[in-house]
Amino acid sequence: MDMDRDAVEPRVESFPGERAEKWVEYHRQFGALSTPAYEFVWDLTAGATGPFCTDVDGNVLLDFTSHIASTPLGYNNPALKAKLDAFELPNPTKIAGQSFTASTGGLPESADVPGPSQLMERLVDITDDYGFDTVFLSNTGAEAVENAIKIAYDHRNGASQAITFKGAFHGRTLGALSLNRSKAVHRRDMPELPGVHDVPFCRDRTCMRASCECGFFPTEDGPSQLREILDPKRGYIDPTDLAYIIVEPVQGEGGYRFPSDAFAEELRAVQEEHDVLLIADEIQTGLGRTGEWWGADHYAFEPDVITSAKALQVGATVASRDIFPDEKARISSTWGGGDVLAAMQGALTIDIIQEQDLLANARERGEQLKARLREADPEWITNVRGKGLLVALDFESKDHLEATIRAALDRGLLTLGCGQRSMRLIPPLDVTEREIALGAELLLDAIEESTTEMACLSDPTEVS
Ligand SMILES: Cc1ncc(COP(=O)(O)O)c(C=O)c1O
Fold first, then answer.
1. In 210, 253, 274, 455, which residue has its Cα 20 to 30 A from 50's Cα atom?
2. How far apart are CA 82 and CA 78, in angstroms?
3. Which of 331, 355, 379 is the last residue of a domain?
């Protein structure tokens, strides 16, 4: 069913409606308990375009979550659909991706539609600034991280130590889990990789050595905590036994924390001093989300390995060939990146971002969104921040955040929480000026309602 992107407005009768409740109940009857976000049940057969979609009860929603940054081109992107529609899907649609080569006929350089091999070529292309030339495809973000740390341990001849950052999230498989430092529920009672240490992550983007409150620079003149633990005299990690440092250029699940330049420069300096292998986990920040291809593009540190997934539709570990094992079967995966449709969608997503200059759009629309929220400056809302279309704001409490997510839903705007009391806004990369303006007004209206609600809860006599 068609929807006119330039005219459609969000419209909510009741949320969740009767059908959504039934679908959610049915889903949960069979599904293991996971991380339920809210009772949004997208109707795959109803109108959807750009950030707009229709739920199973006919509510029209403005989606500023992009399925947690996994649908960068929104719903029914016409350029993507046209390219996919022109291709008759084969059967099977899944092949053993990393180790099995499939073609669409002809020669690779003139392929009509891209498959896993072309996806790898494009990834090499967009990591050219880092000198990367090799890709290992997998299926999820966690697998991309698992393979990144495996190649690091291998490359560093079994070095046994690793450094992660407080507030980090890198996935749910056991290896990736050992690197997490965001929520206790992820790791509690699970066995862990030995030798993983953590240091504070800079959570204040204006942080400087002299004014640091994040704990990364404990004193004005002294070493950072990262430098200190690697110090050959005072530290407790022998830098020659350090396999890798892993960092999210902007922490995602931990609360959309944008580090300062001082942090990034110190990380770079330590990297150079001790020849550290740095893994940038770009699973949430990559593929144009921040207005550059990679979150790391904004900072001084230089990744040796990048992990990508989500927006890419498959998982990918990207680096230079000398970092990957040169021994056959050291890393492998049956389905790794071999979903023909997903790999094609990933490659076409990169093409469309380039063809439509969506990096520039992400920067402009992100500025528009932040400017509107800052100008309105609602009471009790702080720290409006973002790069490109990775935008967040803080509430004074978790309850206030949740009340706002709820009030926004009632107005047809989908948003997500992260960290302790932050809201993240992740519109598609081709979001328009009208859509950002619409979303910002809905959000401001929702904040007004939730703020009144919170005031009433804390002081019932204040009911107006
Ligand atoms: C930074 C980061 N790394 C890794 C992951 C794990 O990705 P997946 O859920 O695809 O395994 C996520 C997912 O949210 C993430 O945000």
1. 253
2. 6
3. 355
pLDDT the model gives residue 458: 78
Nearby residues of 104 by Cβ (< 8 Å), 6 or more positions away: 87, 111, 112, 113, 115
β-bridge mates for residue 280, sequence order: 247, 306
Distance 221 CA to ligand 1 centre (A): 36
Report how many domains make up the chain: 2
Checking if the pLDDT of 1 tops 80, the result is: no
Ligand 1: distance of its center to the CA of 387 in Å?
19
Q: Same structural domain for residues 257 and 382?
A: no
Tens of pLDDT, residue by residue over 119-135, are 999 999 999 999 999 99
Residue 68 Cα: closest atom of ligand 1 = 14
Task: Please indicate, yes or no, if residue 25 is contained in any of the structural domains.
Answer: no
Give 170's pLDDT tier (boundaries 50, 70, 90): very high
Specify if 66 maps to a domain: no
In a domain, 331, yes or no: yes
Report the C-alpha gap between 324 and 136 in whole angstroms: 9
Query: HSE-up of 444 (CA within 13 Å, CB side)?
Result: 17
pLDDT at 87 over 90: no
Residue from 310, 418, 424 whose mutation best tests the ligand 1 pocket (most atoms within 8 A of CB)? 310
Query: What is the value of pTM for the model shown?
Result: 0.97
- Check pocket membership of 145 for ligand 1, CB cut-off 6 A: yes
Span 243-265, average pLDDT:
97
| Domain edge (last residue) among 355, 371, 402 | 355
Residue range of the domain that includes 366: 358-389+451-456
**In terms of domains, do 349 and 371 share one?**
no
Q: What is the pLDDT of residue 463?
A: 46
Residue 155 lies in a domain: yes
Q: The domain spanning residue 341 has which CATH number?
A: 3.40.640.10
**281 CB less than 6 Å from ligand 1?**
yes
* DSSP letter (8 states) at residue 211: G
Report whether 447 contacts 412 (CB < 8 A).
no
Question: How many C-beta atoms surround the C-beta of residue 209 within 10 A?
Answer: 17
Task: Verify that 304 and 364 share a domain, yes or no.
Answer: no
Half-sphere exposure of 255 (CA within 13 A, CB side): 23
